[in-house]
Each structure stands twice: as structure tokens, then as C-alpha cells.
Amino acid sequence: MNKTSVIFTCMIPVFSVATAFSSAPPAKLALQGARIIPVEGQEIARGTVLIENGKITAIGEEVEIPYDAMVVDVSGKVLFPGMVDPHSARALDIPNENLPVTPFLDVYDALDPSKAYFEDALRDGVTAVHVIVGNNCVIGGLSRVVNPIGMSPDEMTIAAPVAMKLSVAPKRGSGRMVQMATLRETFLELADYLERLAEKKYEESLEEKGELLEVGPKEARRLGKDLIRPDDYDDKHRSLVKLTSGKLLAFVYCGTASDVAQAITLAKENGFFDRMTLVLGPDCFKAIDEIKASKRPVILDSELIYRETDPLTGEIRETFVPKVFSDALVKFSLQPSPSNSLAERYLNYQAARCVRHGIRRRKALKSITVNPAKAAGVGDRVGSLKVGKSGDIVVFSGDPLDFNSWVEQVYIRGILAYDRKDDVRLKRLLGDEPAEVSTAADDSSAEQPNGEGTNKSGRKTEE
Prior knowledge:
By secondary structure, the chain is of the alpha/beta class. The protein has two domains: 3-83 and 381-462, Urease, subunit C, domain 1 (Roll); 84-380, Alpha-Beta Barrel (TIM Barrel), CATH 3.20.20. It is built from 13 helices and 22 strands. Strands 1, 2, 3, 4, 5, 18, 19 and 20 form an eight-stranded mixed beta sheet that branches. A six-stranded mixed beta sheet has the order 8-11-12-13-14-17. Helix 4 (176-209) packs across helix 5 (217-224). The longest helix has 34 residues, at 176-209. Residues 1-14 and 435-463 have low confidence and may be disordered.
């Protein structure tokens, strides 16, 4: 195991991730003197962001700072909105359950605030995570959006419940026909359950009035439909009712291009098409016409380059997937690599690759901030630096798309949640920590000689 993976996964306290929310944020905080990239709105060469009671109240070149505000001088730095991970199961004990259909489950029950993933998220500038079950399911449970900081799921939560996970790609060990048959059977059973419940409610209403049932089952079900109350649904069906009635978002996974049409049809037939986000596998760009026509947002696979071999010539063709969606004017979100590999684990690196391949800078920045926030239903709260939104701000040492830039600090709701100078793991990785704090696991990878470490791109750097 290399040194990077040892340091980033061993569980020793590094900075106060779990306890930062135990104290109240400063009532007023001013980050002053930095270049500001709000994503929504024009960049500011040198300005101030004022946060009061956890929310941004002013942003600009000339901001009147209250006398009682805590002022932090960030001159020479760059202020950027906290990035949003739009689709992650890494905060859960296991990404999927064995049962194929589990709409009654909630990620709340499996979310572990002590996961090293949350620590990495802060270190990488991610301030909001959409925690959702993995792709190996038919119908999964309910998701929620959380901050990567807090001592309990309740304390971490930004919004819940947010979405239900569905997959039209075959569950491991199954086939496409079985997958689609199970999906159809689930929604047909739901329709039958609702009809029987409506009939039962109508009969109960007649009993209360002392009247006799004088209509047939079809009419009784029609009349009883409006008598159903939210508490009448059982646990097995309650979430599915919310999904089909437009009260939940739907994240639908398509493993291949051939799954896209099935996903669109399924969503239209069951009432959640207008609230659907497509989670796409690597080759789904081949269904770009259907996706563009649907006008639904998408979350792209973390592997941005798709390679295939021409069966006739043997030539390897490469497609930069985000460019296909950008050219088609499809709103897309990027996600970090779940393998935790460098450098694909960094959202700003993924965005920088987009710019390198010809995608406009503003669109690339939105793909890691505004777009995933909107897809997860929290676009009104996070994703950009804007008055009224949460004070979730990343302080970069330089431009966020320059891979030589570091995340210096992270503020969540105006609370200093991460400070690079207090990051013990990072100091050890770069050879700044005294040798006596090294663990046995670290001894397998010797530190660089002459005080040299490595930066995020693997290049040596003098400290």
C-alpha cells in the first residue's frame, strides 16, 4: 500500500471534524481581501464576503463590515463556493443491500459521521455530499444531503429525504429482463395497493356514517381516493407514493446507452419524469439524442474519457464524455472517483480537465457546484457564493482549476471546519511531521529525502 492511502485512511484525529459544529458559529464573519469566484455572477478581483449567522449577507468589492464582525484577512487567496459531491455511497457501511427492492430504507440509518471519507471531503473542498445508495440495486432507499462535519446524521443534514435511487441496469447476478420485470412489478403492485386502500377508506367512511355500501369496487375506489391521508400508507409503500406523487427526486442509474430509453419510459409511466436525474455509465453519451430530448440533468461517471477499439482497424478511439454533453447543451454534474485515486478524486481537477478539452470555464465550474446542488434539490442553499445562501466557502491558495493550488481553509455555515495548517495527515505526507509520530503502517513507505514531499499531482515540492 502506498503512503498516500495509508495516511488518508487510518483513523487518528486530524482536525476537529466531528466537534466543530458543537459550538455556535461567529455571529458575523468577514473574509476580506481575496479574489472571489462566486460561480453565479461576475468574479471580483479583490473583495469581501460577509457571513452572518451562517448565511452570506453581503459580497463585493466595497462591503461595510460591522464593528463586531470577526475579520479574517485572506489577501492573495481565492474564495470559491464549497463543492458538491452529487452522488456518493462512500459514507455508508455498505453501498447496497442484498434485497433488490428496498424503498422503505433510509441512508440515515447507515450514515457514519466518523468515516474517513468526510475528512477527505473537507480536505478536498467538498462541503455538501448527496449520500445515496449505490448502483447495484433495483429500487434503493431514501437519500439525504449532508455537510461533511458533525457528530450525528441529524447535525450533518442539510436536506432529507431528498431522492430515491432506481436502476435500470441489471443488478449484479441478474439480467436486464429480470431487472425491468421487477421494476414494473413493483409499480403495478403499488397501483393495486393504492386501489385497495382507497376502497377500504371509502368503506370505513360509510361505516362511520352508518350507511350501506351501494356502489361497486371501481366506484368505491374512485370515491375513496380523496379520503386517504399520509399516515394511512404502510412503511413498504410510503416512499414509493412520495416518488410517484412528485414529493421525491428520482436518481435513475443507466449502466449503458441502451438503458437510457428504458429509464425515460419508466419515469414517464410512473409520474417522476419531471423530477428525474440520470446517473450515467461511461458509454451513455452514445444516447445523447434521447438524453437531450428528455431535457433532464445528468451525473457523469468519474471516468471522463471513454475508450473503445474499432473492430475493423483495431484503432483505439477516445471520447471526452463531458464535451459531448456540453456541446448538446445538456446540464451535467461531475463526481469524484469512488476509488479515492489521485487525481480523479478531486472535483476541481475534473473541472480543469473539462476546460482543457474545450469546455467553457463557467460551465466547468458549475458542473462541480451549482449543477450538482440543483440536482440534489439544494440549489437554493449551496453551490454558489450568493446573498442568502449558506456560508460554505473554500479558501484556495490560487485558482481552483490550477492543480498547484491547495485548499487552505474550509468554512461551513461560517464555521472554520478545516485549516490546512492543522492537518496532521497532510504534514506527515509531505514530511513536515516529526518522525516520532509515524505509525508502523507508515514505515513501509519511507519519507522523501532532503525535506521533499509530493504535491497533489505527484510532483516534488520543497517545504
